[in-house]
Write the structure tokens for this entry.
Amino acid sequence: MTSSPYDDADPQPTLGTVVEEGRGSLPFALIHGEALVTCAVWALGDAGVTPVDLGTEWAGLVDSGEPFVLHDSLCPMTPASFIAACVARSGDTGAVVVGVRPVTDTVKTVDDGFVGETVDRDGLLAVCSPVVLPAAVVAALDGLPSLDFAELVAALAARFPVEYADAPPAARRVSSEDDVAVLAALTAPR
């Protein structure tokens, strides 16, 4: 077994869930012969996170006193070691930790219905997985403000410290069957 820069020998007890709600049927597409959502659940478990159902009562999460990890089913190949490193970082800093990837698409402004200037991508990030809520943040919330990760992170950043962790390429978010094919090629065993 090769080591990873994200390895943590002593992970803290952590609860988490894989979000597939509001993502259509794509979480059930296959990658390497398995459903995306299944791969995401395996990564969460391999990261040492105890999976709970998204419908778990929020009060139960608060009572656990544990951090809470949200893993997007559309980021199915996020390495478990990266998820574990984000949990450890959140525990060390007390901040919400969010996996992000650089934006590679061209982004334009729109003004009165007309396409305008190109936005500098250097200042943009694409939210992927995971989103790690430290126990204090879980306790301060009444529930999740959104299951859309970009909206969730924006809402959390308005109230809590948020740190961004550069996710590896395998953590990229898919939005179509074509994206799944690209991710499959990227993560194919060699």
